Amino acid sequence: MISASVLWIPFTLLAAAGQTARNAMQRELTAALGTVGATHVRFLFGFPFALLFLAGVLAATGLPLPEPGLTFWPWVLVGAGAQILATALMLATMNDRSFVVTIAYIKTEAVQAALFGLVFLGDQVTPGMSVAILVATLGVVAMSLKGRGAAEGGYRPVLLGLVSGAMFALSATGYRGAILSLGLPNFVLAATFTLTVRSEEHTSELQSRGLIS
Q1: Cα angle vertex 109, ends 14, 171, to 5°?
Q2: What is the Cα–Cα distance from 42 to 105, expressed in whole angstroms?
Q3: pTM of the predicted structure, to 2 decimals
Q4: 83-107 pLDDT, tens per residue?
Q5: Contacts of 172 (CB under 8 A, 6+ apart)
Q6: Which 8-state DSSP code applies to residue 35?
């Protein structure tokens, strides 16, 4: 039986592949829907899948639906707001730079997430973790900025990409804070419930703006 402590490896590889494919496809929507429209699509269409996955986790574990406390909501609101802003900035950066170059700036997220986690959640960063984060970030940046196009377009896309990475890092910190505030022994249920609440909040926001019925 596979230990839960090593599940992060296949999950990370799967998530990275899915995220890259999603970002590339979402970029194509920007031309037709605009930056704001393409940003909304990402969250709106993800909500039904989040509900299905939550139902599956509840059925598989036999656990009741979590009852979040007051501290859960500020964390999840920060995570959702930061993620929406990060996605919009990412798509705006892709309009100025290539997809590969844009990812180089956004992937400074790992360093910033470690910093936010330390400041807001007290997460400890060991020397080994620091080296791993730096090596991974430098590797992505080196591969992405190789060749033409890395220095074109001025400072605007660079700034947008770095701020987007910061917002993604803040989003991850917000979601982690929300998950930890639930105090559940089952981390899968805690993460799935938080994801579903995030998606529901964004859908409600679109309804309040009259963008969907």
Answers
A1: 85
A2: 21
A3: 0.78
A4: 888 888 887 777 766 666 677 778 7
A5: 79, 109, 113, 116
A6: H
Taking alpha carbons only, the member of 136, 39, 152 closest to residue 102 is 152
On the CB side of 106, CA atoms within 13 Å amount to 24
Tell me what pLDDT residue 37 has: 67
Say which residue the tokens 């969250």 belong to. Answer: 43
Six-digit token string for 157 = 């896309």
Round the average pLDDT of the chain to a whole number and report it: 79
CA gap 210, 119 in Å, rounded: 38
What pLDDT score was predicted for residue 152?
A: 55
d(CA 100, CA 172): 22
Instruction: Spell out a b/e string for 133-166, using b for 16 or more CB atoms within 10 Å of the CB, else e.
Output: beeebeebbeebeeeeebeeeeeebbebbbbbbb
pLDDT of residue 172: 92
Give how far Cα 166 sits from Cα of 26, 98, 112, 159, Å. Answer: 20, 20, 6, 11
The 10 Å Cβ neighbour count of residue 186 is 14
Find where tokens 């982690």 sit: 176
